[in-house]
Amino acid sequence: MPKRVLTTESGAPVADNQNSATAGSGGPLLLQDQHLLEKLARFNRERIPERVVHARGSGAYGYFEVTDDVTDYTYADFLGTIGKRTEVFLRFSTVADNLGGADAVRDPRGFAVKFYTEEGNYDLVGNNTPVFFIKDPLKFPDFIHSQKRDPFTGKQEAENVWDFWAHAPEATHQITWLMGDRGIPASYRHMNGYGSHTYQWTNEAGEAFFVKYHFKTNQGIRCLSSEQAAETAGKDPNSHQTDLLQAIERGVNPSWTLYVQIMPAAEAADYRFNPFDLTKVWPHKDYPLQRVGRLVLDRNPDNVFAEVEQAAFSPNNFVPGIGPSPDKMLQGRLFAYADAHRYRLGVNHTQLPVNAPKATTADNYGRDGYMATNAYGRDRKNYEPNSFDGPAETGRALSAPLAISGYTGTHEAPAHTKDDDFFQAGELYRLMSDDEKNRLVANIAGGLSQVTRDDIVEKNLAHFHAADPEYGKRVEEAVRALRED
Ligand code: HEM
Known about the structure:
Layout: H1 34-44, E1 57-66, E2 85-94, E3 109-117, E4 120-127, H2 140-147, H3 158-166, H4 172-179, E5 193-194, E6 199-202, E7 208-217, H5 226-235, H6 239-249, E8 255-264, E9 290-299, H7 304-309, E10 322-324, H8 328-344, H9 423-431, H10 434-448, H11 454-467, H12 469-484
Antiparallel strand pairs: 1-2, 1-9, 2-3, 3-4, 5-7, 6-7, 6-10, 7-8, 8-9
The site of protoporphyrin IX containing FE has 27 residues, from β2, β3, β4 and α8.
Family: Belongs to the catalase family.
EC number: 1.11.1.6
Pfam family, one: Catalase
């Protein structure tokens, strides 16, 4: 007998794992061969739907440690004491490509953190960019359709990518970011993470603040040029996964320092930019970075499918002291993620080990559904209120209430004095060195010159002109030169 016996899924010993059962030595298979049937049937069911965006990703565990006092701004328990550590799981990702793509591509990177706090899991689902392409969730499916594979050609099409952007002047800031030097990170370790949206913090006294999160990499920023990326993607399509996995296996644990920008809630209405517009940053001179703590990754998952593919982050998972802002994009995301998880993983995805709370337990009256494993029974009632000491509400809101006014309807987000679609894109362009500008212009022209329709090209050029006349002129010249080639 071998030391460890191979069994069927119901635990019965397997006699032969090399030869299936047949009627006679040369005859057809026997339907009674349970081991063969089970093995083939399970194999057919190994795949689940991939994420509709951010399909390719890598994950790791670690901890977050508070280094600075932020209790004037939030009563979140996990941020409440200097030195306090909270376990985290972080999943990095690329956005547009399907599971079979490559890591070294020009694309934003996802930076999704799950803090397993004693008051429940807090998910901060951000990117490596402080802004985004659009500011209304209604546009998200169209935007993503234009960036992913075309339904007819089955591949990404420059025409679709730039046609969407021709109709989205608010994307000019993020396009300038993406086509610039930081557009292709060398690895997940060498990039920053941002919450991107504005969130709300509430302190013990009930005062509200608006905050933006910045995770600054302690490994230094490293990026690839378009040429280096093409070579890397060809040599090792999983270059980011290889780098992260191997660094942590070697004990070279990557870390990030968390800073926040904090705006007292009363300043939001008169700030020169709409503070809830995801296509804008808050200049640091208006709201300086304040250090909060350190995030360290020190453990690779044992099983990529169980822990990375099945990881489920929802921007709607808040803990007391933290809440959403009225940013329309964020509000749309509060719905989209848990809905995606129910489709992709099922209603009980929160019971999977990577998604379940670790520092506390979920205790509520949600029951049953496919694959339920929390078999509450006996004296655990499934209704509330009850007379049997079941879990009960606290009566304390997680975050402060926000005043609202106006009429219902399909509104554009209110524009503040300095709000337009181009000013901050121009500011970013003017910050760049001449070399950086040259690479930015070449990257944009490389994509835009592939578009055959003049009207789509012209609309995009108008956006760069509006951001900065020199920026527009240089992109126009570079596109013309390539199209005439
Ligand atoms: C209204 C706009 C958006 C919608 C509707 C949306 C929707 C989604 C959906 C459906 C997924 C797949 C979730 C899953 O299957 O597990 C996803 C993943 C993701 N999204 Fe968004 N998204 C939006 C905007 C954004 C923005 C602005 C950011 C960053 C600031 C972002 C960051 C991410 C990240 C990091 C993931 C991957 C999470 C993971 O690692 O599992 N998304 N998004």
